[in-house]
Design goal:
CATH topology of the largest domain: UDP-N-acetylmuramoyl-L-alanine:D-glutamate ligase
Distance between the termini: 49 Å
CATH architecture of the largest domain: 3-Layer(aba) Sandwich
Strand order of the largest sheet: 4-3-2-5-1-6-7-8
Number of helices: 15
Length: 438
């Protein structure tokens, strides 16, 4: 009998096959499973940053309007099952185990065929299609692109709407080191006659996306042109902004922090408008207001404690750090900022560190147990900050820091999302203990 632990172990064993861009193997795998993806109503969400937040805003709004919403996201934050969820609830262990029982013999047959063995991501993507179509049918599924877009396993769907949230320099070893190259890969999710919503702001990237939309006969709606979103005030724990489009002029509130979150929320609202225009859904303004306000996404400028003031933020590429720096400037004024940072060494580390150094009072570099992780020395040597330090044991560093902080200080743990997924449960336990003993 296949157990849950054995099922997850088998999925992870596919990591040895690496990243295998291309759709032929994925199409063959899905054909063997009865093409479940063809039975789904989907929204496809790509981009460098903002995908997960956009998924959560849109999912919350649709749930408020009474729809059952499947989501496929990556990476997971605390538990593997999070990647396949319905209405914010992760797939149960027994369902995931059943899915592996279904797909494992197919994958093993393919290993000895002309198609070759499916990768870990292809397996998980195919499992999600089958789950949402056959095992637990839903009204709509929000699919987050894994890597790039054009050759990503999720790109077998024909969605109701395609979304490209942003373009930045990430995964350059796969996607190219120019914004135009990355935009070309992201624009690969645009399908014939399927409308596209774009939050991209760089002109060279916009040009590529516009050309692809024109080639596919797809109408494009760009943030800043077809619709706008401007902050009206900073909330203590969130944002208030004005959204304007041909359909509405309305003020909305968020519980997530940062200008980039306003942009992500605006994109989600525009998706709702397009789905309504195409009579795929019906919603009311209150569904959008309540859904946006309720939406939270782990590791995105997430407040873990007010006293001491502690945040975690998954700024794992230059664009993410740029958004983080902007948020620090807007939010924390004269407060003393300490950052604990760890990241994978295949990222653009130097520009990330240089950007952060502008706005922090001290910066500590650490490492964690993960493939491709940068060493403490590697990060430390890239920094020119006058108050930099090595923190090889991040648990010890956090323990000490929590106890020495005063009300004028902010602690921010940032970098790789894989790092934050280890840090968060530890920090939450320590903060709870600190508050009890105070």
């Amino acid at each position: 009998m296949l157990t849950y632990d054995k099922a997850v172990e088998w999925i992870h064993s596919r990591l040895r096959l690496g990243i295998k861009p291309g759709l032929q193997r994925m199409n063959k795998l899905l054909e063997e499973m009865g093409n479940p993806h063809d039975k789904l109503k989907t929204v496809h969400i790509g981009g460098t940053n903002g995908k997960g937040s956009t998924v959560t805003y849109l999912g919350n709004v649709l749930q408020e309007a009474g729809f059952t919403v499947g989501t496929f996201t990556s990476p997971y934050f605390e538990r593997f099952n999070e990647r396949i969820s319905i209405d914010g609830k992760s797939i149960p262990d027994e369902d995931l185990t059943g899915l592996v029982g279904k797909i494992k013999p197919i994958a093993e047959r393919m290993e000895h065929s002309e198609w070759g063995a499916p990768s870990e991501f292809e397996i998980i993507t195919a499992m999600s299609f089958y789950y949402f179509a056959e095992m637990n049918p839903v009204d709509v599924v929000l699919y987050e692109v894994g890597l790039g877009g054009r050759l990503d396993s999720t790109n077998v769907i024909t969605p109701m709407v395609s979304v490209i949230t942003s373009i930045g320099l990430d995964h350059i070893q796969f996607l190219g080191n120019r914004l135009e190259d990355i935009a070309y890969e992201k624009a690969g999710i645009i399908k014939a006659k399927v409308p596209v919503i774009s939050g991209v702001h760089q002109m060279e990237a916009k040009k590529v996306i516009r050309e692809k939309a024109a080639e596919m006969g797809s109408e494009i709606f760009e943030l800043g042109d077809a619709f706008t979103a401007e902050r009206t005030s900073l909330l203590e724990k969130g944002e208030r902004f004005q959204y304007v489009s041909p359909s509405q002029d309305e003020v909305y509130e968020l519980s997530m922090i940062g200008t980039h979150q306003i942009n992500n929320a605006a994109i989600a609202i525009k998706v709702v408008e397009l789905l309504e225009e195409r009579q795929e859904i019906q919603t009311e303004k209150k569904h959008i207001k309540i859904g946006l306000k309720k939406a939270t996404w782990p590791g995105r400028m997430e407040s873990l404690s007010d006293t001491p003031e502690v945040y975690i933020d998954g700024a794992h590429n230059p664009e993410g750090v740029e958004a983080l720096v902007k948020t620090i400037k807007e939010r924390f004024g004269s407060k003393k900022i300490t950052v604990l940072f760890s990241a994978l060494h295949d990222k653009e580390l130097k520009p990330m560190i240089v950007s952060m150094e502008e706005v922090v009072d001290s910066i500590a570099f650490t490492t964690f147990n993960f493939p491709r992780v940068a060493s403490v020395e590697e990060l430390y040597d890239m920094s020119n900050h006058s108050n930099k330090m090595k923190a090889p044991d991040w648990k010890e560093f956090l323990d000490e820091k929590i106890h020495e902080m005063n009300k004028e200080e902010v602690l921010l743990v940032t970098g790789s999302l894989y790092f934050l997924s280890e840090v968060k449960p530890f920090l939450c336990r320590r903060l709870e203990k600190y508050r009890k003993n105070k």
